[in-house]
Design a protein that fits this description.
The protein is built from 6 helices and no strands. It has helices spanning 6-19, 37-57, 61-84, 94-104, 109-128, 135-155. The chain is globular, with a radius of gyration of 18 Å. Bound molecules: zinc ion. Zinc ion (ZN) binds next to helix 6.
Length: 168
């Protein structure tokens, strides 16, 4: 018998039920749940970027930085699944995507290592040094995530990522 408060264990149970669709399935707009893995990952990235725009306007700079990394990771994953034959299970942690990009592209090894270092530094600063994010950092991170996303959308000549992308 756990000592956790009942409201907490009840709330956790509701999450696991929802993950099993026991309470319905109202999907997020603009992400096709029947789509391929590469399509879904790319569309998640588009949605994260749209959320970043909204959160930036509301001055949630720390959240923008977190989600910008998510958008970059989903964008890279989409490319690697489609073009390199990667599987979602290849990306079990946040750094795996940058490490695979360093080896397989589509960005250079140097850029992939830079992004991985940015991610690691952000983790460390945000959680252990009480660093507070700034408007300038959020704006630069959002710009970086958008540039990477649009590079991936337009980079491949064999895969039509632009058909999936909902960014205007
Ligand atoms: Zn997009």
């Amino acid at each position: 018998m756990s000592n956790d408060p009942k409201p907490l264990t009840d709330a956790y149970k509701r999450v696991t039920d929802a993950l099993e669709f026991q309470s319905g399935a109202t999907y997020e707009p603009q992400v096709d749940p029947a789509g391929s893995d590469e399509q879904i990952q790319l569309q998640k990235a588009c949605r994260l970027l749209a959320a970043c725009d909204y959160l930036y306007e509301q001055a949630f700079y720390g959240s923008v930085v977190e989600m910008a990394f998510g958008a970059m990771e989903r964008s890279l994953e989409s490319y690697m699944i489609a073009v390199l034959g990667s599987e979602l299970s290849d990306f079990q942690n946040h750094t795996a995507v940058y490490e695979r990009a360093a080896t397989h592209g589509p960005i250079s090894r140097e850029m992939a290592q830079n992004l991985k270092a940015l991610y690691a530094n952000n983790r460390t600063d945000y959680y252990y040094d009480n660093a507070v994010s700034t408007e300038e950092i959020a704006a630069a991170m959002l710009d970086l995530a958008r540039e990477l996303h649009s590079f991936i959308v337009t980079h491949s000549t064999t895969h039509q990522f632009d058909h999936y992308c909902s960014c205007s």
